[in-house]
Design goal:
- Helices cover 0% and strands 40% of the residues.
- It has no helices and 48 strands.
- Strand 29 and strand 30 form a beta hairpin.
């Protein structure tokens, strides 16, 4: 799926209380360091988000519960690329360099993007149904609702940003303001001049000028855009009220007075945030105090000390000194149930929040009705599929799985990975350091891989095989048909079917072992560039690009079409491949629509027993077809 920052409190309103939408706890790939909502002033921040990298290294694919995988190109199971293009590595910020089709591809770690992983994200702002970030190169991007253009910020460089209900505003490096989105109340028509901080309310905005004066614009129905005179060092906007911290640290509020939302407490404060109809501040001793509406205990914060603060519609969250999160108030969408771990920054929308972990990764949770808690959909470099689940490796090298999860097969471990393979109810993946990780149903030690460093991995129904760094094979798991008893010699490709396995030797010839009732373990002669194994049949790509399949052919799954192919993936009783022009072709059983792939160009594909998934060549996004249980 990379500046200087004045932090902006998120305003929020009560419109969403009756709205639908799913509740999420996401660890998306857009990432970056931001400062907590409610503080003012300019400051540097680091972080990042992941962007498109071009076609990535495509892992192998499987079927019938067998998903051979690997680090090979064009979906060739397990074929490892050479590292010559990556010496020295052009990737920055810890990015993993991989050769692909004559060029170096950088797989970025969470928090960075760009061709060389050179960019990150510094600022995050959350509105009603959308979220925006500013990358470290100053350029903005938004996701979620875009009904009024609030998700389409203008081009240019920004040092600060705020998000309102249906609009947003940002500060350019010269201090001038730019706003976008709905402007019916003038909320997207800011005043001229230089600003150091900006905050958005429901239909209004306020900013702190570089001389400390306040300026507000937009709706003034309740006086929320009529600030008092004097010098301020921070400003926070609620739905129809606004509060600020004066130069001496005391508070001042104006606008809607209902429930006391414009009647702040006395004392000296160092941070402030505005919610829908309430506000909270952090005193100089770190304790929290809130005022205004308290129907959902949104103005009843927990005890203890806090370093940062963000308020939503009827909830609030804060970062404690040890980096952990605490939230309070309404939890109808999970917005007050924060993830564990240490965080360095926090921002809140109406019913969702986003926080930046200590390692720079952005995490969002709460209402996701239109994707406001989901940064732009991820882009993938590797994909694997099994009977009723699939897994993929994003361009930042993190794993994600989807589909049935009765054996935890779609609950992958954390970390950076180069290849993944999907079995019936388990998966195995190759970490960037060469070690293996397996998860899911532990059958015959199928999720207990051997130690050591590997170059490729393949998963069968109940067994797995891998190629060690020296080219030798290792297999483990169920071995009733000898499928986990590999042959001697060195190999550069590996594939695992339901109860058989095949390997591509260094000289280009094929060898198979295990169950052979349908001749699925009796490969043809000749030289091959890739090999894959399905339920009871296998397929290989000849060095000239033509397809050859052997074994069970009751549904025509071993009768591939003519033409030149760059990838092939056999399933249980069907198969699919990618032609030289990038289009997909499938053959065999079509009872679930699994043999009718979508149009378009693809970089990699994988098939399960009744479905298929492919990575788009241009957008690097996953496209699936066939059985809806994926």
């Amino acid at each position: 799926m990379v500046h200087r920052f004045c932090w902006v409190p998120a305003w929020v309103i009560g419109v969403l209380l009756g709205c639908g939408g799913r509740t999420v706890l996401l660890d998306p790939e857009a990432a970056g360091e931001t400062r907590a909502a409610g503080a003012a002033g300019r400051g540097a921040a680091n972080g990042g988000s992941v962007g498109a990298q071009g076609p990535g290294i495509a892992g192998g694919s499987g079927g019938g519960g067998a998903a051979p995988g690997g680090a090979g190109e064009s979906g060739a199971a397990g074929e490892a690329g050479t590292p010559t293009l990556c010496a020295p590595s052009p990737c920055e910020n810890g990015g993993e360099c991989l050769p692909h089709r004559g060029r170096a591809i950088c797989g970025c770690l969470p928090g960075f993007f760009g061709d060389r992983c050179e960019l990150g994200t510094r600022i995050v702002a959350a509105g009603l149904l959308h979220t925006c970030v500013v990358r470290t190169d100053g350029t903005p991007t938004c996701w979620g609702n875009d009904q009024y253009g609030q998700g389409s910020p203008p081009e240019g460089i920004f040092t600060a940003m705020g998000a309102g209900a249906y609009h947003g505003c940002g500060i350019h490096p010269d201090g001038t303001l730019a706003c976008w989105g709905r402007d019916a109340e003038g909320q997207s028509s800011p005043p001229a001049g230089e600003f150091a901080a900006v905050a958005m309310g429901r239909f209004h905005g306020c900013g702190v000028r570089t001389n400390g004066d306040l300026a507000c614009w937009g709706s003034d129905e309740f006086g929320q855009s009529s600030p008092p005179a004097g010098a301020f060092r921070a400003v926070a906007s609620g739905a129809n009220h606004t509060c600020g911290i004066r130069a001496d640290g005391t508070l001042a509020c104006w606008g809607d007075h209902a429930e006391g939302r414009s009647l702040p407490p006395t004392g000296v404060f160092r941070a402030i945030a505005g919610g829908g109809d309430h506000s909270c501040g952090i005193r100089t001793n770190g304790t929290l105090v809130c005022w205004g509406l308290d129907d959902d205990d949104e103005s009843s914060p927990p005890g203890g000390t806090f370093g940062a603060l963000a308020l939503g519609d009827h909830h609030g969250c804060g970062i404690r000194p040890d980096g952990t999160l605490a939230c309070w108030g309404n939890d109808a969408h999970g917005q007050s149930a924060p993830p564990q771990g240490e965080f360095s920054a926090l921002v809140a929308g109406a019913n969702h929040n986003c926080g930046v972990r200590a390692n720079g990764r952005l995490v969002c949770w709460g209402l996701d009705s239109v994707g406001q808690a989901s940064p732009p959909a991820g882009m993938f470099r590797v994909i694997a599929a099994s009977g009723h689940h699939s897994c993929g490796i994003r361009t930042d090298l993190t794993l994600t799985c989807w589909g049935r999860n009765e054996r935890d097969q779609t609950s992958p471990p954390e970390g950076a990975f180069l290849a993944v393979a999907a079995g019936s109810y388990h998966n195995c993946a190759l970490r960037t350091d060469g070690t293996l990780a397996c998860w899911g149903f532990e059958y015959s030690d199928g999720t207990l891989p051997p130690g050591g460093e590997f170059a490729a991995i393949a998963a069968g129904a109940w067994h797995d095989c891998g190629i060690r760094r020296d080219g030798t094979l290792a297999c483990w798991g169920e071995n009733g048909a000898g499928q986990a008893s590999p042959l001697d010699g060195t190999f550069r490709g590996i594939a695992a079917g339901s109860y058989h396995s095949c390997g591509l030797r260094m000289d280009g010839t094929l060898s198979c072992w295990g169950r052979d009732e349908e001749n699925q373990a009796s490969p043809p002669g000749g030289l091959f560039a890739a090999v894959t194994a399905g339920g009871g049949h296998s397929c290989g790509i000849g060095v000239e690009g033509s397809l050859v399949c052997w074994g069970d052919n009751d549904f025509g799954q071993a009768s591939p079409p003519a033409g030149t192919f760059t990838a092939v993936a056999p399933g249980d009783v069907h198969s699919c491949g990618i032609r030289a022009d990038g289009t997909a072709a499938c053959w065999g059983d079509n009872g679930e629509g699994q043999a009718v792939p979508p149009s378009g160009s693809f970089a990699a594909l994988a098939v399960g027993s009744g479905h298929g998934c492919a990575i788009g060549q241009r957008d690097l996004r996953v496209h699936c077809w066939g059985d809806q249980v994926r």
